[in-house]
Amino acid sequence: MLFHKGGGNMKRKQVQRCSKMDMFWLATNVCFSLLYFLNPSPTYVFSFAQSIQPTATPPSGPSPDARLSFYGSLLAAFTTIIAAVIAGVFIVYQVRKNRRLELEKQQIQFQLDETLQRQQNQAELGKIFYSEKLSIQREEKERERQQRNSAAEAARAAMISAQTPEEREQAYREAIRHDIDITHLQILDMSQPLEVAKVYVRVRLHEEPQLSYEIEATLRSAEKRRDPNALLKASWASLETRSSASMTPEGALQKYPRCIVLGDPGAGKSTLLKYLTLKSINKQLLNIPDLPIHIELGEFAYSDTQDLVEFASSQWYERYGFPQQEARIYIEKHLVEGSAIFLLDALDETVIGANEDIAIESYRRTLGAINQMAARYPKVSIVVTARKAGYYRRPRLHGFTELEVLDFRLDEMKQFIVNWFAHHTVTRRHATADKLNAELARAPRMRALAANPLLLSLIVMVYEVQQDLPEKRAELYKQCIDVLLYKWDTSRDIRRRREFKPEYKRQLLMEIAWHFHQQGRRYFSEDELLKVIAHFLPTIRHSAQQCKLILSEIEEENGLLKEQAHGWHGFLHLTLQEYFVALYISENDKLDVLLPYCGDPWWNEVLSLYAGSVFDASLLLQKLLRQERRYWPYQDVFHTSLLWAGRCFAARPRVKQIAVQEKVIARLLNLLKKTPYSLTRNQVISILINIDVDEAREIFLAILKNKRANTQVRGDAVFALAQLEERAIIPDLLTLLKDKQEDAEVRGEAIQALARLEERAIIPDLLTLLKDKQEDAEVRGEAIQALARLEEHAIIPDLLTLLKDKQENDIDIRLRIITILPLLKDRTVIPDLLTLLKDKQEENYIRGSAAVTLAKLEEHAIIPDLLTLLKDKQEENYIRGSAAVTLAKLEEHAIIPDLLMLLKDKQEDAQFRGDVAFALATLEEHTVIPDLLMLLKDKQEDARFRGDVALALAMLEEHTVIPDLLTLLKDKQRAVFFLKNTKAALQIPQLLIDALKMIITWENKYQIAYFRWHIVVALAILGEREIITSQLISLLPLISLIVINYDIQKLLEEVVRGLPEIRDLARLLNSYFISYKDKNIIHRILWAICRTEKVRILMIDLKWIKFIRVSKW
Questions:
Q1: What parts of the sequence cross the membrane (predicted)?
Q2: What's the rounded Cα separation, in Å, for the pair 891 and 920?
Q3: Does the pLDDT at position 607 exceed 50?
């Protein structure tokens, strides 16, 4: 909740108490006044005797003082009467007011009681419906169970009654189809097993599972930046790279008939073999044997059998009733022919025994049985599965291709969830596949865990049971770790050899996570890891010499640690490392060690998880609030501690001190209203939504309706309401939309919010706005964008009518309409656009935009019309140039001869010929290079035109034109044109460097700032970091002279590193020459830089005077 439940009542009681106190003091004052006026003091005359003693003598007549006393008494009596009347009126008013309030209170209470009763009735009906549905589903499950048992019994009976090998084979196939151990998947303690064929999502197999000798460069680079988000992105990118070179299981079996499939615990290896068994038995695998023999190697290891064929025949007899001797003969026949496939599951589960020697011997016996069978039957296909961690530490199979199961990608996760919800028939009220997929899309760390099929299954199961994901992420992570640490093997009755208790493993993992996270490390060397383990073992009475054995056990059995490269280890996912760090801090009382890291991206998730792990987060929130004000009178520009207090509160911790909850919310709301920075407002909005959606909605609506509130704050409130996807706010937004007295920016946000909510009912209102020429231009522009977003094709006639209206005062409106037409993807607009293009009375900008739009619509039928325009010498040169460029964008190579002819025609306008040269370069037609070089060398040609030719050659990567381009730079006008087309010279960095030196001599400071910044951005694309760094200090003061675009923003985020540069950039926040929009961008840039460089920016803001301090954390 945003507020304590009784918060509103408490405030009303305080107001009532204040009113009662005011009444008390008023009544008291009236009483004292009455007493004073009704009992006036006696009047005395004083005289002084010789002894200088005062003597009281009564007056001897009606002195002036007596008259005054009389009138005073009269006045007092009159005043008393007036006061009494006022007091009486006030008392009557107060009584009536109290009565009215009491009636209102009773009415509100009645409405509340009525609403509560209605909700209770609905809840009861829901329970009845749920109970009935649950009963029906139980009956369905029981019927399904009985049907499976009946089918299995029928298959066994068919096997017993079978007389010929063909009949026995058919009975075997039918028995496999109804063998619940193969057809179904039981995960942990789920109430109903999953059907493999229905929920299976095809995994990908990679051909190079062996570890590299170094951590991938992208992962190592992300680790050095100590940015968890960068690490997550690098991990996903690595997975995508490996997936692009992966194979399907069917493709792998066709290519490698003998292979071993390796993977982490829960990666889906066993499920894959079950799926292949079912596909094979149904003859659905192309060029792969169709007689599957599925064996769990753990069972083989526990048996006394030395031969896999003998073991398979005994299993056929025990499970399906196939006579053992006949089964062996039948299996051997197919093995010799190569028409059978052995599917051997879980080689790692054969490491069993009372001590290490016995366990290794058990493994060797199984390995020998597989190798022996492979040698005896050279034609047989064999697929084995094993956990990757243990396989490379023990003897390996001979002649088997090693493949690795890759983690799920996002699409595969989504498909698994959809399959689960479609076929796992349990009763759900609110949980849906779409909702869970949306949750995963918003949570990158949870998505990292969900890449493992077992953990994804656990997440889905938790979601099903709770009808939602746990409010505390820490709780979900705890359940995932418990599964890997305690439950996964136990639930499948797998008994491995174990030296170390699970609880000790948990404690050790906390120590490891804390040790390396403090150093900012995701990957750690084996030697250092073993030292940490060896240091821990004596504390639980284990020998430090067991450190290697313990590491192997954790990696092989639980998979929580993983060898990432030869000699390099790390947690299965960074998320697990962060969780164990949070646990360590909680259990070892290290909060004061954690707090200084507040705001450091490397520790952000740890702080959030810690909040969700402690019994009471009151102390954490209090310390964060105090930390926010520790730099007074300076103030943190990013309000780091306050925002993190909000994020920790949003992690749904228990906060026993209600006052602390209310203080966090109050300060966040105050920050929302006062901050001038959109980044901070958006952060506060996100936090408030995560704390309590319902209360946040009320807050944003209240802000929106308060017309005295800051315009930007109100606009952000509209954006926040749209984020909530709450359609109940649509009437409020429509009211805003229609209110012409409302601020244009707020109305524009309302329009976009309605479009994001896909509220198609607003289309008529948007058209009305658009047609109203008296309406604000910005609002009309937003209406155009909203109509494009809604993709309402029925409005196209109206848009075309507006587009053709030459009386429209604002040409920008017409241009915007042209711009959105391609987004509507309606080719019926093409004739009207062609008409506009040909209309010589029309504005050139409109005609040129029409040409560009036609190119975007890829309408090749307009090529003849464009050619006509191109050749018409009576036409405007701007239009002819636009036609040339449009033809080039349509990739119409047939026009090259015409373009070349126009290019060489010296009677044509120089600027138009320049456009033709640009069109030829756009077509990437290298055959025209000789003609262009000839024109470039012709000194009789116009200098402007030769410059355009040089640029076209640069675009065609003709480096021989460098001297000509360097000469071109000496012409200031041509240099401006060249610099505006900087991308054309990206292959020639020297030109840009020379340009930087040249333009410093210009007089126009705006041109200097604009072009220097854009050249530096171009050099950044080329990786010329040294030049950029040397230019940066002199460039920062010029930033107020330009508009900061996305490229410049990214450049500054990546290049600005030293404290002097950060300080110079921070000072721009105080500049009166920087626009509000650019200050917001600079604030965002500084936020990104400070997170990377661990820098704090503090400010004293006295409106007219501001002081800035920059320091390291």
A1: 21-38, 68-93, 446-463
A2: 10
A3: yes
